[in-house]
Write a structure and sequence with these properties.
This protein is an alpha+beta fold. The protein contains three helices and three strands; from the N terminus they run H-H-H-E-E-E. The chain has a three-stranded antiparallel beta sheet with strand order 1-2-3, covered by helices on one side. A hairpin with a 7-residue loop joins strand 1 (about 55) and strand 2. Helix 1 packs across helix 2 (about 15-25). The radius of gyration is 13 Å and the shape is globular.
């Protein structure tokens, strides 16, 4: 799956292990695992709905997005948009 980040700053924080440790502390390893799972997946349905990743549809202002947990209280939010051809 292709991962596109919402900003260059966020991309740099999440792809550089040193910055990932600096900004996310002890959760850095869990975040790396989830991002690796996303990169390896062919599509979002390859991510299981049961914990630990727990893919789930969000609602409210984020009703067009999905969440993937990396800890009980934190998640990675994914906006699924088709790539233009």
């Amino acid at each position: 799956m292709v991962i596109v980040y919402s900003s260059k700053k966020l991309e740099k924080q999440l792809t550089d292990i040193r910055l990932l440790k600096k900004y996310y502390g002890n959760a850095y390893n869990k975040i790396r695992n989830r991002l690796s799972e996303l990169e390896a997946a062919n599509n979002l349905s390859d991510i299981p709905e049961c914990p630990p990743p727990r893919r789930h549809k969000l609602n409210g202002n984020l009703r067009d997005c999905w969440g993937i947990d990396y800890s009980p209280n934190d998640r990675i939010i994914i906006s699924v948009a088709p790539l233009s051809a």
